[in-house]
Design goal:
mainly alpha; 61% helix; globular; 2 strands; 7% strand; Four Helix Bundle (Hemerythrin (Met), subunit A)
């Protein structure tokens, strides 16, 4: 399905896009970042916090990270201070890249078994499929944050994968 090179490429894309989105968000006031604009998670801040929550949830399964202590419905409010959220994001991205460097074909081919709170049952699925979901989730919600930032007059530059990540993977 996917390769270790794909995982490393997407981890690099994740780092760079988060850097751009957080830089753009830092140009706004806290009130502007936290204003509800009717997006799925409401605000820019809540959307960025939810992305971090999702990453932490999946990385707890993939790499033994501590699971988030709040349920998904509270994920947008799990870190209220933007500076703390930004620092936490930078650390998480470095850890995701380190994990991506360790992923190999055998790991991707194996199944993961976990209890899904969303489905309320045990699930077994190929790790490769779940890693694809992990990166897709990031991209999906970053697109929402990007739209909110653009509406606030912020520019993040190109977002296309082939323009953001050099061809080194």
């Amino acid at each position: 399905m996917i390769t270790p090179a794909y995982v490393r490429m997407m981890a690099a894309y994740n780092v760079e896009m988060n850097r751009r989105l957080y830089a753009a968000a830092a140009n706004l006031t806290d009130d502007a970042r936290k204003a509800d604009h009717g997006a799925f998670w409401g605000s820019i801040h809540r959307t960025l916090a939810h992305i971090y929550w999702g990453d932490s949830q999946w990385m707890s399964r993939f790499d033994g990270w501590e699971r988030p202590t709040v349920p998904i419905k509270q994920s947008g409010d799990m870190i209220a201070d933007f500076a703390v959220l930004r620092t936490t994001r930078v650390d998480a991205d470095a850890r995701i890249e380190a994990w991506a460097r360790r992923v190999d074909d055998a790991w991707l081919a194996a199944d993961l078994v976990w209890f899904s709170g969303a489905a309320q049952r045990e699930i077994r699925a190929p790790k490769g499929k779940l890693v694809t979901h992990f990166f897709n989730h990031q991209t999906h919600h970053r697109g929402q944050a990007h739209a909110l930032l653009t509406a606030q007059g912020q520019d993040t530059g190109d977002t296309d994968l082939f323009l953001v990540v050099p061809e080194t993977y």
